Amino acid sequence: MESKTSxxxxxxxxxxxxxxxxxLSWMGYEVSGLSSTNFSVSDQPPSGLPQLILIATxxxxxxxxxxxxxxxxxISICASGHHYAQ
Amino acid sequence: xxxxxxxxxxxINDIIAGIKLGVHGYLxxxxxxxxxxxxxxxxxxxxxxxxxxAGERVIYSEENDIRDPRRLSAAKNLPEPQQxxxxxxxxxxxxxxxxxxLQISPRTLSGYRKDIYSxxxxxxxxxxxxxxxxxNLFDQDDKLRSNQMILKNV
Lengths: 86, 154
Description:
The complex is a heterodimer. Chain A is of the alpha/beta class. Chain A has helices spanning 14-26, 65-79, and strands at residues 6-11, 30-33, 52-57.
């Protein structure tokens, strides 16, 4: 892979989020994440906009539209050099 | 910047809600690495939508599928009963609820659905909804529209 594709992994489903972060790192992608713990995933926002955002959802939390919107907006904000708007 | 949902949940209502908000795809949580790689490559190299749901993997191109003028023309020329069904297919209603809403039998609804799929040449409700939303075929509420506008600028 010439330049690593940058992927931001987030979402409320911790196991999915961490599992996918692991797998993507193993596959050679540059992985960052929000509210994730351990592994190779940083809690810091990417230095620039990621090329893809993955949001892990569960049947319990569903992919409630407002949640997706807020998460995506926050990624945009912090990728622009600002803090997360919680 | 594509936003993709990884999900254990394949409820059509949730998928439609995501499409309305502007997500670019859904991936099953059980996706294999090779398929995931294919999805990421597609999503990061072109204006495409990627759905890997219920054992069916579909890639829709913004240019060739969603903005296809022949499909648009076909959608706008659907007879009124099919138009009404098409509009409700883009809502969170189940097929049973759509039939009740329109006061038609499930069998009649099934026939109208086949007409719509055939005319617009999509094989799934997800494709139809994506096509309708991206082309603003039906009115959406102001809040949703506002959110979509912001997401477009992400």
